[in-house]
Amino acid sequence: MIIKPSTLLRNDYGTVSNMVHESAEPVYITRNGEGDTVIMSIEAFEAREQMLRHRAEILEAELNRLTGAKAYTRSEVRAHLKEKHFKDVYDARKP
Q1: How confident is the model over 23-50, as pLDDT tens digits?
Q2: What is the DSSP letter of 23?
Q3: What is the Cα Rg of the chain in Å?
Q4: Average pLDDT value over all residues in the chain
Q5: Of 40, 36, 5, 46, which is closest to residue 23 (Cα–Cα)?
Q6: Which terminus of the chain is more exposed, N or C, with fewer CB under 10 A?
């Protein structure tokens, strides 16, 4: 965990920006010795957001499973995807 005072951010933004990008971790900024702000690179933020979306999707799927929602076998999913997305490809191969 990287913790820096707000004066560093104010006086030397470039150093803080480089720190964030090089470490790929958030930098915690303090104000008067107390936690105040967190700074992270856009890439790290987007990766974190994607991970959180995936976790939400997994949680939703697990909740559906636990509440008895219809589940599909791998074969059923493949058949559905083939029909929905690749029907034209398979139809074109037929003589």
Answers
A1: 989 999 999 999 999 999 999 999 999 9
A2: H
A3: 24
A4: 90
A5: 40
A6: C
Number of domains making up the chain: 2
Pair 33, 73 in one domain: no
Q: Residues 33, 49: one domain? A: no
Residues 50 and 71 in one domain: yes
Tokens coding 36: 């105040």
Q: Which of 46, 38, 35 is nearest to 19 (CA)?
A: 38
For residue 87, give its domain range. Answer: 44-93
CA-wise closest residue to 5 among 25, 35, 42: 35
One-letter amino acid of 75? S
Question: CA 32, 35, 37, 39: dihedral to nearest 10 degrees?
Answer: 110
Q: Which of 42, 44, 15, 45 is nearest to 29 (CA)?
A: 15
Residue whose tokens read 């991970």: 51
